[in-house]
Amino acid sequence: MISLKGKTFVVMGVANFRSIAWGIAQSLHTAGANLIFTYANERLEKGVRELADSLENPNTILVQCDVTSDEDLAKCFASIKEQVGSIHGVAHCIAFANKEDLKGEFVDTSRAGYLLSQDVSAYSLVAVAREAKAVMAEGGSIVTLTYLGGERVMQNYNLMGVSKAALEASVRYLANDLGKYNIRVNSISAGPIRTLSAKGVGDFNTILKEIEEKAPLRRNVTQEEVGDSAVFLFSDLSRGITGENLHVDSGYHIMG
Ligand code: N5H
């Protein structure tokens, strides 16, 4: 197993125990890393605190951070700097789209809905990377989460697909900017997992079934698998990789 002992990682976007962010946090914890969790608002704080406390030998820090607020972001990373000095990576696991925009046709997307989704799901990575750069004195690794709908048209993913396309392009431009500081930026394109984001998706079972039938591995992926891949991207084993989109999807993306 890869050791990340003595290294500190910020995990943004844990909503509950099903979150991919939580899978990443658990894998990081298993690798011996120190963890800092950020939560968007008070409503989410209690759940994140309970999960953080459930980790064996918890040595974790919680910081509030709404990524749509530049002030919050600045305060959050200043507080992290004050508490730990420097960090070695950030897991950005944050996205949002209004429910009504995740059905029907993309052509009907409102300006406000589009901008909100871009702000929370794509621009936030740029802002987080800028803040994180100031706290990554020894270089680092930034990992964000995307989905195949950012590369091709997937039913109902609509404006989230466009936000993920912007996120994936942002990964490449950020990788180019931050490479000279030995900061790597990559994304993981996870197969569908039943998270809070997926809640209310009417035909989610059909989507999962299609993966079981068509993906090379003939099964769906788990939070743990995404978490372990993130640990690889956070570790020195991936030191030659940046600007990459790693598909952790049972190979589904290679299928026509
Ligand atoms: C093709 C699909 C199925 C249809 C699309 C699902 C898109 C989900 C992503 C967004 C981020 C979900 C979202 O913003 C839901 C909100 O409108 C309502 N939920 C909330 O506000 C909850 C409480 C909070 C915690 O959620 C968020 N996001 O803040 C894609 C699926 C097969 C795969 C999938 C589910 C992809 C993905 O991007 O998550």
From TrEMBL:
<feature type="binding site">
    <location>
        <position position="97"/>
    </location>
    <ligand>
        <name>substrate</name>
    </ligand>
</feature>
<dbReference type="InterPro" id="IPR014358">
    <property type="entry name" value="Enoyl-ACP_Rdtase_NADH"/>
</dbReference>
<feature type="binding site">
    <location>
        <position position="164"/>
    </location>
    <ligand>
        <name>NAD(+)</name>
    </ligand>
</feature>
<feature type="binding site">
    <location>
        <position position="94"/>
    </location>
    <ligand>
        <name>NAD(+)</name>
    </ligand>
</feature>
<keyword id="KW-0520">NAD</keyword>
<feature type="binding site">
    <location>
        <position position="13"/>
    </location>
    <ligand>
        <name>NAD(+)</name>
    </ligand>
</feature>
<comment type="similarity">
    <text>Belongs to the short-chain dehydrogenases/reductases (SDR) family. FabI subfamily.</text>
</comment>
<feature type="binding site">
    <location>
        <begin position="193"/>
        <end position="197"/>
    </location>
    <ligand>
        <name>NAD(+)</name>
    </ligand>
</feature>
<comment type="pathway">
    <text>Lipid metabolism; fatty acid biosynthesis.</text>
</comment>
<dbReference type="GO" id="GO:0004318">
    <property type="term" value="F:enoyl-[acyl-carrier-protein] reductase (NADH) activity"/>
</dbReference>
<dbReference type="GO" id="GO:0006633">
    <property type="term" value="P:fatty acid biosynthetic process"/>
</dbReference>
<comment type="subunit">
    <text>Homotetramer.</text>
</comment>
<feature type="active site" description="Proton acceptor">
    <location>
        <position position="147"/>
    </location>
</feature>
<comment type="function">
    <text>Catalyzes the reduction of a carbon-carbon double bond in an enoyl moiety that is covalently linked to an acyl carrier protein (ACP). Involved in the elongation cycle of fatty acid which are used in the lipid metabolism.</text>
</comment>
<feature type="binding site">
    <location>
        <begin position="66"/>
        <end position="67"/>
    </location>
    <ligand>
        <name>NAD(+)</name>
    </ligand>
</feature>
<feature type="binding site">
    <location>
        <begin position="19"/>
        <end position="20"/>
    </location>
    <ligand>
        <name>NAD(+)</name>
    </ligand>
</feature>
<dbReference type="InterPro" id="IPR036291">
    <property type="entry name" value="NAD(P)-bd_dom_sf"/>
</dbReference>
<keyword id="KW-0521">NADP</keyword>
<feature type="active site" description="Proton acceptor">
    <location>
        <position position="157"/>
    </location>
</feature>
<dbReference type="InterPro" id="IPR002347">
    <property type="entry name" value="SDR_fam"/>
</dbReference>
<keyword id="KW-0444">Lipid biosynthesis</keyword>
<keyword id="KW-0275">Fatty acid biosynthesis</keyword>
<keyword id="KW-0560">Oxidoreductase</keyword>
<protein>
    <recommendedName>
        <fullName>Enoyl-[acyl-carrier-protein] reductase [NADH]</fullName>
        <ecNumber>1.3.1.9</ecNumber>
    </recommendedName>
</protein>
<dbReference type="Pfam" id="PF13561">
    <property type="entry name" value="adh_short_C2"/>
</dbReference>
<keyword id="KW-0443">Lipid metabolism</keyword>
<keyword id="KW-0276">Fatty acid metabolism</keyword>
